[in-house]
Write a sequence for this structure.
C-alpha cells in the first residue's frame, strides 16, 4: 500500500477537484469556522469589485486560498483512503457463487451479490470466497492477501476458532462448505471500503465537543470584531484628515481589513485540519491492519485504563519450550541430553521440537534426524500415551528411550521394574512450582528401566513484553493477564512478563465478570478475543478487538477487527487512539497561540494612523500597515498547508506520564505557537515590501 | 518612605493577612455547607417559607430557586423605592424615579451595586437599611450558594443532587455573612466610620461657610458592602467619603473584607472535592492574577507620565490624600478584581494604562478572586475549558476531578464565557453607535470611549464600580445597563448550575498516571495563561481605541 509521506503535487493535485467541490456552502456550513472564512471571502470579493485595488485583491485571493486549503486538507485525508478502497474493490470483483440448493445439496451458480444470510456455498481450490461466512465442512488453505496484505496462506477449517472466512479471499487448496453470515452489501470488504473512504465517518463525542469550543471561540472573536466597528467609527469621528489610510475610512474600519482581522483571529488552523485529523486517525489504524467499526472506539482506545490480555499467544509465544535438563543422580548431563533428543525426534509437537533444539544449542549435540539411525523403531508422540520415544537395537537386546509427561513416563519405568528416585519427584515438583511443565526422560535396557532425568518446559514470554508493559504502566494503563493455568504457573508467568495483575484458572465467564468489575470502578477496559466464548466479553469491553481468524460471533461482538490476528496489536491501538487526541489538542493550542502574534501585526496597523502611539505595539517593525495585514492573512493560510502533514501523521507520541506529555506538548505547540508566527509574519512582510502596488 | 515602599508594604501586609485568614474561613465555610444539622433559627425560617430542608435539588430546581428568589427581590426593591416618600425615615427624599429604581433594584439584586443615583441625596435610611442592605446580604448569599452547588457538581457521585438552594442561602446569611459583618462593623466603627440614624446636620465651618454633614447607619452597611463584594456606597463618594472610609487603615480593612470570602472559597472547594491540593491550585491562580494586577496598577500610577504627575511624582489626581497613590491603586485593583465596585478614588482620573488594568481586572471575568461565590465558579468553569484542551494533549478524553468533559459540558462552559464579553462589547458598541448615549460622555476621544467601555464591562461582570465622567441616569443607560446586569448575572449562573448538574450525574473516574494532574503548578500556570490570553484576545481591539490609545505615547 503506498504511504505518501510528503505532500507533493502528486498528492495535492488529485485532491483538488474534491476540495473545490467542498467549497459549496451547502456542505461547508457544517464546518462553521471555514464557512465564516468563505462568507468573509465572498464579501471582500464584492468590496474588491466595487473598489478595486492591489491590496484588496491580494487579501481576497488569500482569503479564498484559506478556505481552499481547509477543504484541501480534508480532501487529501480522504484521498489517502480512496487508493486503499480501490484495491479492496478489486478483491470484491463480481464472483460467481456455487450455492447448495436446499434439500438436494446440488450446487447452482448464482452471482455473489444475490447471496443471503444462511445460504450454503461450496468453494474449491482456485475459487474466490463469495461472501463473509463460516466454514461448516472441510479444511482449506486460504490466501487472504487481498484483505490483510499478508501473502502467507492461512488454514481455515470447520469447527473451532479458525472457521471464519472473508469474502474476496481465495481458496488455494481443498474444498470447503461455507455458511454465509453477512447481509448483501454489508460484507467485511464493504465496511472496510466505507471506512477508508471516510463515508461512514461519524463525528465522535470528543470531536463534537472540540467543534463546540471552536464555535464558541469563533463567536467571541466575531463579537470582538463586529463591536469594534462603531468604536472605530466614533474614534475616527468624521476625521477626514486620515487621507488614504489603508485601514480606516470615515465610517470606521474598511470592510476588507475588518474581514482580515476576523479571519486571523478565529481558529482557522484547527478548524481546517480537524476532520483531516479524524480521518487520518482511522487511516493509521487501517495501515496497522486494524478495522475500527467506529471512530468512537478509536478514541475509547486512548482512554483505556485496563488491558485484559490472554496469556497464551499474547504474552507468551503459545508453546512451551525446553529450557533446562535436570539429570537424575549419577546420570551425566550429556547422557540425559542425548537421550532426551533421541526420544524427541519422533515428537512433532512444538514441545518435542524444542527439546531437540535445546539439546543442540545448550549441550552442543549434533543435529540429528529420525532417518539418520538405522534400525530404529520410532514411537511418535500420542495424546493417549503422552509419550514419545525410540527403540534402538543395542547388541542383542533393545534400548528403549521414552520422554513424556511425568506421570506417564514414571509409570512406564515402574512397569518395567525400575524405581523412581525421590529426588526426581522433588525436581518435578520444583519445575511445576516455578510455573513450568515437567517432562521425564527414561531408559529401558536389558530388562531394567531407570529414570535419566527431567526436562523443564517453560512458557516463553515474547521478547519485549516487559518493556511494553512498563510503558503501559507509565501511561497509567493496568495490564491484567488472564489464563486457564493453575495459580502457581500463572503467578510465575505474570511475574516474568511484568503484568500488573493476573487471573488464574479463568473461565470465560470470569473474564466478563472482571470486565464488569473494572467498569463499575469507572475504568475503561480493552481486550482481545477470537473464540465464540469470548464474544460476550468482547461485547462488554469498551474496546473489543476480535482476531480476523476468529469466529464470526467474536468479530461481530467486538468493535475492532485485527486483520493480522496479532493480540499484541492492542498496544498499538491504544497508542493510535492517544495520538489522535493529542494531535487535536496540540493543533488547537497552536491555533489559539498564533493569535497573539497576529494581533501584534494587525491591531497597530489598524489604528496607528489615528493614534501614532500604538506604533509601540508593532514589535515586528513591519513595513507598512498594508503589508502587515496581508502578511498575517498569508501566514494564516500557509500555516494550514504547513501543518497538514502533521495532522495526517499525528504528533509524535512517546509513552510517559501525563505531566511530562503536557509539558512537552505545551512547549512545542503552545510556546512554539506563540513564537512561530512572529518569525513567519516578519518573513512574509520582508518579501511583501517589494510587491508592486502595495503601500 | 518612598511611594514604592508604601505600595509594597500596603499590598504585602494584605497578602499576609489573607494567607492567614483564608484557612480558618475556608474551613468554616466547608463546615457550614456540609453540616447535616440545622439551627433552631434556620428551622424557623424553613417552616415559615415552607421548605423541606433535607430534600436535595437537581440543577433545574436549584436554578429555579435562584431565579424565583431574585425576581421577588427585584420586584420588592423596586416597589420599596417607588413608595419611599410614604415610609418612615425617608429624610424627606422623593420617590425614586422609575428608570433609576429599576436600575438600582437590578443592580443590588445582581450583586453589582452600580449606582445611577447619589446615595445620601436619593435614598432614605429605611430603603438603605431594609432594602439595599438586605440585598447586600442575600445577593452575596445567592452567589455563595451557587458556588457551593457548583462545587457539589464536582464532588457528586452520580446522583445529580446539588443540595438545597434555600438551605444554602439561609446558612450563607445566618452562619457566614451576618456574624462576620457584625464583627467588621464594630472594627469599622472603631476606625471612625459613622453609625447613627441621623439626617443631615448643617454646621458652620471655621471660615464662616456652611457645610452639610450627612449621618446614617453607615458602618453596618459598609461591612456587608465589602464582605459581600457589593460595593454600593452609602454616600455618593463611596469609600472615598471620610464617614465611610476615614483613614488608610480602614481602607486596608475594607480591602481585606472584600477579598476574604473569595480567597477562602478555593479551600472550601478543595475540601469538598476531597483533595485540598485542587484548592491550592485554584487559589494560586487567583493570587497570581491579583498580584499581577496590583503590581501593574501601582506601577502605572507611580510611573508618573505627563506634566502634572511628574510634578507631584505620581498620578495623584483623583486620589484622596489620606490614602495616597499606592493606597488608592491597590484599592482600585482589589475592588475591580473582586467585583465589589466600591471606590476610594476616581478611576476616571487614573493614567490611561492604570484605568486599563482596572478594566482588565473585570474583563478577565471577575475570577481573581472575583465576587463572593461567582469568582470561584468563573475560575472553575475556565478550568473546565483549560482541562479540555490540556487533557487532549495528554491523549485522553479530558476529565477534571474525575468528571469527563464531553460535548454537553463544553457547550455550557463555552456559553458561560461567551455571555459577559458579548454583553460588555455589545453594550459598548450600541452606546457608541447611537448619538444620544454618546452625548452622555464627559470627555471626547479615547477617554470618552473608555468611560462607556468601563461602564458596560462593570455592569456585565456585576462589578458596579464606575469610571465616572459618564452620565448614566439617562433612560438609555439605566435600561441598557440594567439589562446587561441581569443577563450578566443570571445567564452565567444558570449555565454554571446546568454544568454542575451534568457533572453531578457522572460518577467520578479513578485517577491514573495517564490522568492530567490539575493540582500542580504546571496546570495552575496554564490556567492563568489561558485566562490572560483569552481576555487579551477578546478585548484588545476595543482597548486599543480606549485606554491603550490614551496610555501609549
Amino acid at each position: 500500500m503506498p504511504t505518501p509521506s510528503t505532500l507533493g503535487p502528486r498528492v495535492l493535485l488529485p485532491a483538488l477537484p474534491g476540495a473545490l467541490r467542498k467549497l459549496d456552502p451547502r456542505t461547508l456550513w457544517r464546518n462553521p469556522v471555514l464557512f465564516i472564512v468563505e462568507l468573509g471571502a465572498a464579501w471582500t470579493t464584492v468590496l474588491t469589485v466595487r473598489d478595486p485595488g492591489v491590496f484588496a485583491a491580494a487579501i481576497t485571493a488569500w482569503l479564498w486560498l484559506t478556505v481552499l486549503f481547509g477543504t484541501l486538507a480534508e480532501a487529501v485525508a480522504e484521498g489517502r483512503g480512496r487508493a486503499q478502497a480501490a484495491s479492496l474493490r478489486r478483491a470484491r470483483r463480481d464472483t460467481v457463487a456455487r450455492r447448495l440448493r436446499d434439500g438436494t445439496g446440488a450446487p447452482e451458480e448464482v452471482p455473489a451479490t444475490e447471496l443471503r444470510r444462511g445460504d450454503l456455498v461450496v468453494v474449491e481450490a482456485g475459487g474466490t470466497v463469495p461472501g463473509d461466512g463460516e466454514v461448516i465442512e472441510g479444511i482449506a488453505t486460504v490466501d487472504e492477501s487481498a484483505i490483510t496484505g499478508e501473502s502467507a496462506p492461512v488454514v481455515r477449517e470447520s469447527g473451532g476458532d479458525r472457521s471464519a472466512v472473508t469474502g474476496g479471499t481465495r481458496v488455494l487448496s481443498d474444498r470447503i462448505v461455507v455458511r454465509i453470515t453477512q447481509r448483501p452489501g454489508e460484507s467485511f470488504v464493504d465496511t472496510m471500503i466505507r471506512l477508508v473512504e471516510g463515508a461512514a465517518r461519524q463525528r465522535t463525542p470528543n470531536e463534537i465537543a472540540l467543534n463546540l469550543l471552536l464555535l464558541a471561540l469563533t463567536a467571541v472573536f466575531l463579537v470582538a470584531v463586529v463591536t469594534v466597528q462603531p468604536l472605530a467609527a466614533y474614534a475616527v469621528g468624521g476625521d477626514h484628515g486620515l487621507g488614504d489610510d489603508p485601514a480606516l475610512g470615515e465610517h470606521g474600519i474598511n470592510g476588507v481589513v475588518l474581514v482580515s482581522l476576523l479571519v486571523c483571529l478565529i481558529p482557522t488552523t484547527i478548524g481546517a485540519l480537524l476532520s483531516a485529523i479524524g480521518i487520518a486517525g482511522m487511516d493509521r489504524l487501517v495501515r496497522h491492519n486494524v478495522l475500527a467499526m467506529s471512530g468512537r472506539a478509536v478514541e475509547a482506545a486512548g482512554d483505556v485504563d485496563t488491558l485484559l490480555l490472554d496469556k497464551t499467544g499474547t504474552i507468551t509465544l503459545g508453546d512451551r519450550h525446553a529450557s533446562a535438563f535436570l539429570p537424575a543422580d549419577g546420570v551425566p548431563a550429556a547422557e540425559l541430553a542425548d537421550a532426551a533428543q533421541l526420544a524427541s525426534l519422533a515428537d512433532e509437537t512444538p514441545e518435542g521440537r524444542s527439546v531437540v533444539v535445546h539439546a543442540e544449542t545448550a549441550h552442543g549435540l549434533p543435529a540429528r534426524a529420525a532417518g539418520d539411525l538405522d534400525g530404529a523403531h520410532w514411537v511418535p508422540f500420542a495424546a493417549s500415551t503422552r509419550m514419545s520415544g525410540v527403540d534402538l537395537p543395542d547388541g542383542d537386546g533393545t534400548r528403549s528411550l521414552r520422554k513424556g509427561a511425568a506421570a506417564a513416563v514414571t509409570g512406564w519405568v515402574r512397569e518395567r521394574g525400575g524405581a523412581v528416585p525421590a529426588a526426581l519427584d522433588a525436581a518435578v515438583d520444583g519445575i511445576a512450582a516455578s510455573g513450568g511443565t515437567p517432562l521425564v526422560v527414561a531408559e529401558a535396557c536389558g530388562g531394567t528401566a531407570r529414570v535419566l532425568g527431567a526436562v523443564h518446559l517453560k512458557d516463553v514470554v515474547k521478547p519485549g513484553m516487559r518493556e511494553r508493559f512498563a510503558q503501559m504502566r507509565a501511561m497509567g494503563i493496568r495490564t491484567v493477564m488472564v489464563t486457564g493455568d493453575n495459580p502457581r504457573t500463572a503467578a510465575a508467568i505474570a511475574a516474568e512478563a511484568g503484568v500488573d495483575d493476573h487471573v488464574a484458572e479463568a473461565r470465560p465467564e470470569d473474564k466478563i465478570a472482571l470486565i464488569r468489575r473494572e467498569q463499575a470502578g469507572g475504568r475503561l477496559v480493552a481486550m482481545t478475543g477470537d473464540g465464540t466464548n469470548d464474544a460476550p466479553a468482547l461485547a462488554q469491553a469498551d474496546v473489543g478487538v476480535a482476531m480476523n481468524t476468529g469466529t464470526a460471533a467474536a468479530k461481530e461482538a467486538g468493535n475492532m477487527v485485527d486483520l493480522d490476528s496479532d493480540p499484541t496489536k492492542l498496544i498499538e491501538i491504544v497508542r493510535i487512539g492517544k495520538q489522535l487526541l493529542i494531535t487535536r489538542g496540540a493543533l488547537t493550542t497552536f491555533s489559539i497561540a498564533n493569535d497573539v502574534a497576529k494581533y501584534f501585526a494587525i491591531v497597530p496597523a489598524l489604528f496607528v494612523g489615528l493614534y501614532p502611539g500604538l506604533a509601540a505595539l508593532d514589535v515586528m517593525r513591519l513595513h507598512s500597515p498594508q503589508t502587515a495585514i496581508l502578511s498575517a492573512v498569508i501566514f494564516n493560510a500557509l500555516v494550514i498547508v504547513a501543518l497538514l502533514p502533521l495532522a495526517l501523521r499525528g504528533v509524535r507520541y512517546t509513552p510517559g506520564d501525563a505531566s511530562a506529555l503536557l509539558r512537552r506538548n505545551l512547549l512545542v505547540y503552545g510556546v512554539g505557537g506563540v513564537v512561530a508566527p512572529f518569525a513567519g509574519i516578519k518573513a512574509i512582510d520582508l518579501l511583501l515590501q517589494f510587491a508592486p502596488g502595495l503601500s | 518612605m518612598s511611594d514604592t515602599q508604601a505600595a509594597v508594604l500596603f499590598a504585602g501586609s494584605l497578602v499576609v493577612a489573607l494567607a492567614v485568614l483564608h484557612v480558618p474561613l475556608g474551613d468554616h465555610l466547608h463546615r457550614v455547607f456540609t453540616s447535616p444539622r440545622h439551627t433552631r433559627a434556620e428551622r424557623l425560617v424553613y417552616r415559615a417559607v415552607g421548605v423541606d430542608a433535607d430534600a436535595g435539588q437537581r440543577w433545574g430546581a436549584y436554578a429555579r430557586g435562584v431565579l424565583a428568589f431574585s425576581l421577588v427581590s427585584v420586584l420588592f426593591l423596586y416597589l420599596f423605592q417607588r413608595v419611599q416618600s410614604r415610609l418612615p425615615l425617608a429624610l424627606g427624599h422623593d420617590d425614586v424615579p422609575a428608570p433609576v429604581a429599576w436600575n438600582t433594584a437590578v443592580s443590588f439584586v445582581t450583586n453589582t451595586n452600580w449606582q445611577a443615583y447619589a446615595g445620601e441625596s436619593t435614598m432614605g435610611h429605611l430603603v438603605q437599611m431594609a432594602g439595599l442592605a438586605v440585598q447586600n446580604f442575600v445577593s452575596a448569599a445567592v452567589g455563595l450558594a451557587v458556588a457551593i452547588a457548583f462545587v457539589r457538581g464536582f464532588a457528586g457521585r452520580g446522583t445529580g443532587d446539588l443540595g438545597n438552594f434555600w438551605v444554602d442561602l439561609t446558612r450563607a446569611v445566618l452562619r457566614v455573612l451576618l456574624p462576620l459583618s457584625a464583627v467588621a462593623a464594630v472594627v469599622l466603627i472603631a476606625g471612625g466610620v459613622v453609625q447613627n440614624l441621623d439626617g443631615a446636620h448643617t454646621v458652620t465651618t471655621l471660615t464662616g461657610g456652611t457645610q452639610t454633614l450627612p449621618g446614617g447607619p453607615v458602618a453596618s452597611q459598609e461591612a456587608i458592602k465589602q464582605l459581600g463584594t457589593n460595593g454600593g456606597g452609602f454616600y455618593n463618594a463611596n469609600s472615598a467619603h471620610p464617614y465611610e472610609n476615614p483613614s488608610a487603615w480602614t481602607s486596608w480593612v475594607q480591602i481585606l473584607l472584600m477579598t476574604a470570602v473569595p480567597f477562602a472559597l478555593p479551600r472550601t472547594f478543595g475540601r469538598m472535592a476531597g483533595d485540598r491540593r485542587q484548592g491550592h491550585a485554584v487559589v494560586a491562580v487567583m493570587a497570581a492574577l491579583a498580584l499581577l494586577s496590583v503590581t501593574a496598577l501601582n506601577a502605572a500610577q507611580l510611573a508618573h507620565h505627563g506634566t502634572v504627575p511628574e510634578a507631584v511624582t505620581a498620578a495623584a489626581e483623583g486620589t484622596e490624600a489620606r490614602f495616597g497613590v499606592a493606597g488608592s491603586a491597590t484599592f482600585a485593583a482589589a475592588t475591580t478584581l473582586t467585583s465589589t465596585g466600591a471606590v476610594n478614588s476616581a478611576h476616571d482620573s487614573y493614567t490611561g494604562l492604570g484605568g486599563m488594568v482596572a478594566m482588565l481586572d473585570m474583563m478577565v471575568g471577575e475570577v481573581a478572586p472575583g465576587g463572593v461565590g461567582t469568582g470561584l465558579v468563573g475560575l472553575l468553569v475556565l478550568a473546565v475549558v483549560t482541562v479540555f484542551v490540556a487533557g487532549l494533549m495528554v491523549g485522553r478524553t479530558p476529565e477534571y476531578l474525575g468528571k469527563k468533559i464531553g460535548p454537553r459540558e463544553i457547550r455550557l462552559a463555552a456559553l458561560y464565557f461567551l455571555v459577559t464579553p458579548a454583553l460588555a462589547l455589545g453594550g459598548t458598541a450600541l452606546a457608541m453607535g447611537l448619538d444620544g448615549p454618546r452625548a452622555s460622555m464627559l470627555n471626547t476621544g479615547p477617554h470618552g470611549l473608555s468611560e462607556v467601555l468601563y461602564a458596560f464591562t462593570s455592569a456585565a461582570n456585576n462589578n458596579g464600580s464606575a469610571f465616572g465622567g459618564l452620565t448614566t441616569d439617562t433612560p438609555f443607560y439605566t435600561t441598557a445597563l440594567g439589562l446587561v446586569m441581569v443577563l450578566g448575572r443570571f445567564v452565567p449562573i444558570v449555565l454554571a448550575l446546568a454544568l454542575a448538574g451534568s457533572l453531578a450525574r457522572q460518577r467520578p473516574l479513578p485517577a491514573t498516571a495517564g490522568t492530567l494532574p490539575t493540582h500542580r503548578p504546571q496546570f495552575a500556570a496554564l490556567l492563568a495563561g489561558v485566562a490572560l490570553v483569552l481576555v487579551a484576545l477578546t478585548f484588545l481591539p476595543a482597548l486599543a481605541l480606549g485606554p491603550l490609545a490614551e496610555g501609549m505615547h
Summary: The CA atoms of residues 89 and 125 of chain B lie 5 Å apart. The first strand of chain B starts at residue 200 and ends at 204. The two ends of chain B are 30 Å apart (CA to CA).
